[in-house]
Amino acid sequence: MKVTIKVNGVERTGDVEPRVLLVDFLRSNLRLTGTHNGCDTSSCGVCTVLVDGEPVKSCTALAVQLEGRSITTVEGLAQGATLSAVQAGFHEEHGLQCGFCTPGMMLTGTALLERNPNPTEDEIRWAISGNICRCTGYMNIVKAIQHAAKVRAEAAAAKPGVPATVGAGGGE
Amino acid sequence: MLPAAFDYRAPASLTEALAILKQHGDEAKVMAGGQSLIPLLKLRFSRPELVVDIARIPDLNTIKREDADGHFAIGALARHVDIENSKELATAAPMLAEAAHWIADPLVRNRGTLVGSICHADPAGDWGSVVLAFGADIVATSQSGQRVIHAQDFFQGPFTTALNPDEIVTEVRIPVAKGHAGGAVQVELDGGKIAKVGIGLTAVGDRNIKAADAERHLHGKEPTDAVIAEAARLAAETAEPKDDARGSAAYKKDVVRVFVQRGLKTAVGRAREAR
Q1: Fewest CB within 10 angstroms: A35, B9, B28, B256, which?
Q2: Which CATH code fits A2-74?
Q3: Which sequence spans correspond to the domains of chain A?
């Protein structure tokens, strides 16, 4: 059946069987392979995408359920060559080792900072409790999100109303 | 994992959804957030011919206080996160918000619903024990009208409920007490004595279990340490755990005793503060 979903700001239409999972629609139909498929049992969170700004596990959603909704994948975080604050935070704080969990971690972190721009360490750890890093790099993942919160706060103070982004490799 | 093929309908109204269920009966499966059903479909434990997605039906996502008899109505599409963040529930029925906080993880809570979870009726599901402890009413709607199923009659066995194939649970009614709850334990006090108590047990049997002997023991008594300890012992006797990789039956019974004792103390403390 026909399904139309806004993905990273662009309306995308596909013809899928109802049983097709959102993660497979994104990866196979739209060739957006930044969304990973890991445990496939809604445990690990590497398949995280934002649905209308909220992080959900795309291995446990049907594409047809998301008809008319707005989805952000990791490919939608950067603006051109400019990394988002959360992406820059992962770069600066070495928030990844193998990188497999990173898209999901960054999307969950992005949603957290939209809702709570200045989270405590405990709030960050609670927010990412549905995302597993098998390299166990949690210390730096938390630091990366804290770095992003700081960058966003500074950007908001400098230019009220302008979304926080920094250049790739910013801070060098 | 790819589920077996099924047809999919996303009705825009409750009337339309009930007509679809009437027509398809047992061959159809109702889906709200899909956080229990989709894993079953992927493992092919469930192979319905038709999935009826009720997520687009308006007005089912409400959490509202009904002043007439002081209960909260939790709609079929109210998500775990909505319950977790509800300021009104946090003061009126804190056990709900606290239980929601421990359901799965934050991402699953953004899609899953309380009603979907109890209809799934996993004996290891926390919401089953919570609705048992509250003595909640479950409202099932079909083309013939509404019927109210008491929580204690709703859970019939593993993944089995009292629902008919043509029914949708449209809301769960949570009675709101003057005193409050802790764990899956709900207590109301009257003159220092226990006027009303509910205790629900999770993952120690083929369904969520109401600890009725413990409730009877507590009723009308002042909740002293000795009374609470005896109630906790009775609750452990009511539990029907099995030996498995997670622990022996004897160990699980003792965990029930300890948790019920703690829960009762928390609930009694809150009920005293609320007076």
Answers
A1: B9
A2: 3.10.20.30
A3: 2-74, 85-158
CB contact under 8 A, B5 and A17: yes
- For B12-71, how does the pLDDT look when each residue is reduced to its tens digit (9 = 90+)? 999 999 999 999 999 999 999 999 999 999 999 999 999 999 999 999 999 998 877 779
Distances (CA, A) of B257 to A170, B9, B199, B205, B263: 56, 46, 12, 15, 10
Report chain B residues touching chain A, CB-CB < 8 A: 1-8, 10, 31, 34-35, 38-39, 41-42, 51, 53, 55, 81, 104-108, 110-111
pLDDT digits (tens, 9 = 90+) for B57-106: 999 999 998 877 779 999 999 999 999 999 989 888 888 998 999 999 99
To which CATH superfamily is domain A85-158 assigned? Answer: [2Fe-2S]-binding domain (1.10.150.120)
A57/chain B closest Cα distance in angstroms: 6
Q: Let me know if residue B58 belongs to a domain.
A: no
**β-strand partners of A10:** A7
pLDDT, residue B191, reads 83
Which residues does chain A have within 8 Å of residue B53's beta carbon, measured at their own beta carbons?
Answer: 64-65
